[in-house]
Amino acid sequence: MRPCPPKPVARIWGGSALGFGPGIGEVWLCEHPLLVKLLDPRDWLSVQVHPPHAYALRVEGRPGKYEAWYVLSPGEIVHGFSRPVTREEVEARARAGTLDEVLNRVRVERGQVVYLPAGLVHALGPGVRVYEVQTPSDLTYRLYDYGRPRELHLEKALEVALLEPTPILQAPPEPVEGGERLLSTPFFDLFRYPLRGRLFLRPEARLVLTLLEGKARLGEAALTPPATFLLEAGEEAALEGEGLLLGASPKGG
C-alpha cells in the first residue's frame, strides 16, 4: 500500500475551493498507474480533444488519453457538438471566435459520471469541480481558448475530433464488494465506496483510492480529504469512519 501525496498545480483558470489556496486549479492525487486529479475551474477550460492511442503513438510517439469526470459540484460542460459539423467549419469558427455556437453545452449534477473518450471535444465550465480519472498521458489538443494567449493545436485536433453529436454515456451502477462500479471502460474502471463505520477492500486489480468526504482511519493513520493511496491487486485495506471514497483501477492492472 502506497500513500500518494497531493500535488497542487496553479492554473490561469483555477479557483480556490480545493483547500490549497487561490488559483490552484488542479490537485494531482496520483500519477501512476492512472492520473487522478481534483479540478476546480473559476473560468471555462479550453475547448479541447485528446488523441486515441493509435494516432498518438504514430504522431507523438506515446499513448493517447482517455478520461472520466465524477462531478462534485453542478454546472455546465461542453460535451461534443450540438449538430454535425465539418473540419472546415470548426477551423473557421475556432479562428473567428464563434466555435461556441456549435458546441453542445450540457448541465451536469453532483454525483454524475461523464466519460470522455479520445476524440470527444469537451470543456469544463466555471464552478464545476470534478474528480478526474485518466490514462497517464498529457496529450491535449486545444481547439479554442476563450481569447487566452495560449497555443492552439487546430490541425492535430481536427484530425482526431469526433464531428457528430455524442450523447453522454448513461449506465446504471453495478454492485461490487463494499460499493458500486460507476463506469467501466476499456482502459479503467471507476468505483464509489460509501464509508459507514467499517469498509473492507481487497481489490482484484490495482486500485487508486481517494477519501473524498468525511474522516477515516486506515490502521494507525488518520485520513482526511483528499487522502489518496494505491492498493496493489489482492492487498487488503480495512477502513473505519464516515465518508465517501472513490476508486479507479486500470484495466489489465
Could you write a compact summary of the structure shown?
The protein is mainly β and 253 residues long.
Strand content: 35-45%
- What's the SSE pattern? EEEEEHEEHEEEEEHEEEEEEE
How confident is the prediction overall: mean pLDDT? 96
Query: Roughly how many Å is the radius of gyration?
Result: 18 Å
How far apart, in Å, are the first and last alpha carbons? 15 Å
Low-confidence stretches: none
Determine the oligomeric state from the structure: single chain
Count of separate DSSP helical elements: 3
Largest sheet: 8 strands, antiparallel
Could you please describe the fold and organization of this structure?
This protein is mainly beta. The chain is built from three helices and 19 strands. The protein has helices spanning 53-59, 87-96, 154-160, and strands at residues 2-3, 7-10, 24-30, 35-39, 47-49, 67-71, 75-81, 103-108, 113-116, 122-124, 130-134, 141-144, 174-176, 179-184, 188-201, 207-218, 221-223, 228-231, 237-250. The strands form four sheets. Strands 1, 13, 14, 15, 16, 17, 18 and 19 form an eight-stranded antiparallel sheet that branches. The protein has a six-stranded antiparallel sheet with strand order 2-3-4-11-6-9, with no helix packed on it. A three-stranded antiparallel sheet has the order 8-7-10, with no helix packed on it. A hairpin with a 2-residue loop joins strand 13 (174-176) and strand 14 (179-184). It is globular. The model has no long low-confidence stretch (mean pLDDT 96).
